[in-house]
Amino acid sequence: MRKPIFLLIVILSLILAANPAFPRDVSPADAQKYLKTHPEAKKYVSPEGKPTSEGEKLLKTRQKEGAITPAEVKEGLEKLKEKEKVQEVVLPEKTLPPEEVAPLEEVKEEAELSKPKISSAFPGGLRVFGQQLFSAGPASFTPPSNMPVSTDYIIGPDDNIVVQLWGRINEQYTLTVQRDGSIQLPQIGTIQVAGLTYKQLQELIKREAESITGVNVNVTMGKLRSITIFVVGSVKKSGAYTVSAFDTILNALIYARGPDTLGSMRNIQLRRRNKIITTFDLYDLILKGDNSKDMRLEPGDIIFVPKAETVVAIGGDVKVPAVYELKKEKSLLNALKLAGGIKPSAYSEQIQIQRYLENRERIILDMSLDGLKKEKRPFTLQDGDVVRIFPVIKEDTNAVYLFGNVTRPGKYEYSSEMRISDIIKAEDLNPETYFPYALIKRYNPPEM
User: Fold this and answer.
1) Which among 311, 301, 299 is positioned nearest to 259, based on CA atoms?
2) How confident is the model at residue 24 (pLDDT cuts 50, 70, 90)?
3) Which of 228, 283, 343, 424 has its CA 20 to 30 A from that of 317?
């Protein structure tokens, strides 16, 4: 404490500059440097560099104790300059070598992973239900161009059609559909085929070939046309994709690695010429095997994946613990059905919901499965809810345990009026058994 007061008195003396005995190299500017690094001195010195009333009192007290000598002033200045040197040291900036600097995309991905997720409420976290469809990626996916063409495939420009004639004429022609939707078939002429299904195309060419006597015909598809479509919204790899005209919404989602952690699995929109043509729910495909809304794509189609609206986590003793997106199944009972129902080992008397209220607080709600079934109004889940299903107590409630020098130690069913002799027979005792002593440990004493 003595050193700060000593320096302060020296500074005050310099500001006053009232002592002609002080060295010539002392200036009020030196005193101001001290004040910048010691804000507490402002109690004694004003912003103009003059002593306050407290400063004058301190000087008077010091003068009574003994005058400040030039040697003391010099000592104070040297200490002041030493402090300035320490404060003026600039540490060199630590820079990573070029190979250690993470690319922008990787930094973004790391930041995304650090966001809090409701799945983190469970040890090990929970997967997003439906993401398993896209876990393998496009590498394990068989392109539709290598699959048989279905009879409802729509013919369009740039499709290749293979026409084989045999009988009086043995020829094979590979014909490309022109921009005007026609093909030129030798011996027959121009045929308009664009817009027909594959089945209709086969029937049309066979009818036209009947005009040639003694000729049989077979029509198959060759190389299918390529189209450009767009996958945008909350997907892992958004952008433009060149795909086969045989591709569907699901195929395009696989190319884009599926919805991201915020994307909807249940409201995937196919937009064509500024209209929503259909909405595809992946849960229908996963849970019911229904792909009726998985439409075939056309040039310029846009697949838009919006953000999921109501997302809950269901974990614990359920058959399929995961993070679920709710659509019509917002009641707790329906949400449990999505998760496959509770396990036989689940404790149905305590279903716990963790909920956030208006972004202000978090609460816990406990309820029983039987109580939920009896309620007239279903309990509705909200976005961000975490549902926990606890297991029953692992101990058996109707068992007794036998240990020691016996042939069949272990667990036995308990019944009323049961006696020790009911589980220990003479033949159940091993040799060298000590008969005078046995221990019965009872955890639940009988009621008096």
Assistant:
1) 311
2) very low
3) 283
Residue 162 · residue 171 · CB < 8 Å? no
Indicate whether 103 pLDDT > 50. Answer: no
Distances from the Cα of 255 to the Cα of 281, 298, 308, angstroms: 18, 16, 20
271: β partners: 276, 302
Confidence at residue 29, expressed as pLDDT on a 0 to 100 scale = 63
Annotated domain spans of the chain: 2-87, 150-221, 226-305, 310-391, 395-448
Nearest to 310 by CA among 361, 384, 380: 384
Sign (positive or negative) of CA dihedral 383, 329, 272, 181:
positive
| pLDDT (tens digit per residue) in 430-442 | 988 888 888 888 8
Please check whether residue 126 is in contact with residue 168, taking contact to mean a CB–CB distance below 8 angstroms.
no
**With contact defined as beta carbons under 8 Å apart, do 162 and 219 qualify?**
yes
Compute the distance between CA of residue 159 and CA of residue 175 in angstroms, rounded to an integer: 8
CA 171 to chain centre: 58
For the CA atoms of the chain, what is the radius of gyration? 43
Average pLDDT over residues 60-82: 56
Q: Of 360, 361, 362, which is closest to residue 386 (Cα–Cα)? A: 362
Same fold, 150-221 and 226-305: no
Residue with structure tokens 């002041």?
Answer: 80
Three-class secondary structure of residue 193 per DSSP: coil
Alpha helices in 184-294 (DSSP H): 198-209, 249-255, 282-283
> Are β-strands 182-185 and 189-192 bridged in parallel, bridged antiparallel, or unpaired?
antiparallel
User: 408: closest CA among 382, 427, 432?
Assistant: 427
May I ask the CATH architecture of the domain 310-391?
Roll (3.10)
Pairing of strands 226-233, 310-316: unpaired
Residue 99 main-chain phi, psi, to 5 deg: -70, -15
CA distance 316 to 137: 29
Look up the CATH architecture of domain 150-221: 2-Layer Sandwich (3.30)
- Dist. CA 166–CA 172, nearest whole Å: 9
What is the helix (H) or strand (E) element at residue 363, kind and residue range? strand 361-367
Looking at the structure, give the CATH architecture of the domain made up of residues 226-305.
Answer: Roll (3.10)
pLDDT tens column, 291-333: 999 999 999 999 999 999 999 999 999 999 999 999 988 899 9
pLDDT value of residue 417: 86
